[in-house]
Amino acid sequence: MIKYLHTMIRVSDPDATIRFFELLGLKELRRYDNEAGRFSLIFLAAPGDEEAQIELTHNWDESGYGEGRNFGHVAYSVSNIYETCQKLMDGGVTINRPPRDGKMAFVRTPDNISIELLQAGPALDPAEPWASMPNIGAW
Known about the structure:
Blueprint (H helix, E strand, L loop, with lengths): L5 E5 L3 H11 L2 E8 L4 E7 L7 E7 L14 E5 L2 H10 L4 E3 L6 E5 L5 E6 L20
Parallel strand pairs: 1-4, 5-8
Antiparallel strand pairs: 2-3, 3-4, 6-7, 7-8
């Protein structure tokens, strides 16, 4: 038997990244600070789906991570993609690939990790301003 546990991403600014995921609707479950190893592990999940976690790893002495494209993305299903994208935009997040089709969008964390948002169930009918919004940058 195999079971999904979490996806780990390295972050430079844990507070900014936690704010990003809180805007998305995730909550911090637990945190482990290791003084000897000089790192923190912070686990977050969507309420009601606590088994699907994201682990934020913060190495206290790092001086910035490169933007290697070897990491693909983290994907979350949302109940209303338009409302979710609007909430993120209201929180200052750029929607890199808007949900023009009512089904899929891409945003990025403060450390430039790509997050795919997928509409739960059937796609929503196309709606403005999303239907005519262009892609912004890489997604």
